[in-house]
Amino acid sequence: MPAQQLRPRYTFPVPELPDIETYLEALSERILGEPLLGVGIESPFLLRTADPPIREIDGKKVAALRRLGKRVVLALEGELFLVLHLMVAGRLHWMPEPGDKAEAPRARRSARRTGTTLASFRFPGGTLTLTEAGTRRRAALHLVRDEAGLSSLARAGIEPLEADLPAFASALQRENHTLKRALTDPDLFSGIGNAYSDEILHQAGLSPVKLTQRLTGDEAARLHQATRDVLGRWLARLRMERAGGFPEKVTAFREDFGVHGRYRQPCPRCGAPVQRIVHAENETNYCPRCQTGGQILSDRSLARLLKQDWPHTLEELEQKPGFGLRKAARARSGRERERARR
User: Fold this and answer.
1) Pick from 219, 340, 184, 225: which is nearest to 291 by CA?
2) Average pLDDT of the chain?
3) Is residue 288 part of a domain?
4) What span, in angstroms and rounded, lies between the C-alpha atoms of 117 and 128?
5) Is residue 252 situated within a structural domain?
6) Three-class SS state of 272
7) Which of 211, 242, 273 is at the close of a domain?
8) pLDDT for the residue numbered 12
9) What is the distance between the alpha carbons of residues 227 and 203, in angstroms, rounded to a whole number?
10) Are 110 and 22 contained in the same domain?
11) How far apart are CA 256 and CA 101, in angstroms?
12) The domain that contains 42 carries what CATH number?
């Protein structure tokens, strides 16, 4: 069977810590200290709480903005908290007042591309809208009262950019999970999802299926540093790209990623074809040379389908052109190696 027929369909990626922080910074510039003039709920599936009633927030000023895992929190006067969970396909858009001729058309185009409008929040300077692509309604809106109510929505994960090595290692080894599962578990680490966990593991040079309780001290330290480096670097990059505007291209598939979303593209370090493991809607990408010692990790559905034809090592993979580098990537990788020799 041709390799092209084996590719799973990509879903919208979940916004992760760098994306949510970028949203919060853009929102702070636009709505912090401003009154919420009105709320429009367009989907009956969005609002998940009934008390306090949603109309109670009309006219309340935004006192602060914060991140709760992968959620956006608007802290309002009177100890009310509006909590937006974008889930997989939810995106935020800022529709400025008609006087802003530069930003308004861009925002409208982006909102149309990213789905159906589920809610709108009107402020003096513009309107914040929540859209969701597709037909499955997963995005959620909660309105809770006081810090205790907000805490009821929180998970126990530590903040990866704030944790020192002992706290990081303790969280990592609390359960005996694979590294991929541990990094994306919100009860262990806050804000890390499918995309950035791939990038973190690639930078650390660790297998996504290595068990946490088998990590050496050096490996744990390497993973801690890689987590800080990857999240910090991409947060700085997204800030630079935003350049004062509102982030309208939130995605976890980026050309400059090392491995995530780059199946059969060359690893930027060694040139080996990036591999993947597909499970339900998630895809784990890794470099077999940099991370698994040349071993091709078993993708259960493909391994079951291909049986004896499934390549178990990088050497076997290189003998099967349909599963190695894509043709264009192979040519690009060759040019890059030639430039490196010069």
Assistant:
1) 219
2) 83
3) yes
4) 11
5) no
6) coil
7) 242
8) 55
9) 9
10) yes
11) 31
12) 3.20.190.10
Identify whether 212 is part of a domain: yes
Q: Which pair of structure tokens corresponds to residue 62?
A: 């935004």
Domain boundaries, position 192: 165-242
190 CB neighbour count, 10 Å cutoff:
22
Q: Is residue 78 part of a domain?
A: yes
**Which residue, 152, 227, 162, 225, is CA-closest to 192?**
227
Cis peptide before 52 (omega within 30 of 0): yes
Q: How far apart are CA 215 and CA 232, in angstroms?
A: 23
Q: What is the DSSP string of 36-97?
A: --EEEE--TTTB---SS-GGGGTT-BEEEEEEETTEEEEEETTTEEEEEE-TTTEEEEEEE-
Instruction: State the CB neighbour count (10 A cutoff) for residue 209.
Output: 18
Name residue, tokens 């050309």.
255
What total of structural domains would you count in the chain? 3
Taking alpha carbons only, the member of 112, 276, 153 closest to residue 209 is 276
More confident residue, 162 or 316: 162
3-state SS, residue 315: helix
Range name among 4-8, 243-247, 252-256, 281-285 with the lowest pLDDT average: 4-8
283-337 pLDDT per residue, tens: 899 999 999 988 888 665 554 544 455 455 555 555 555 555 555 444 445 545 4
- Tokens 């491995």: give the residue: 259
Query: How far are the Cα atoms of 139, 256, 264, 287, 298 from residue 199, in angstroms, in the given order?
Result: 25, 10, 16, 10, 20
Query: Cα separation of 266 and 52, whole Å?
Result: 52
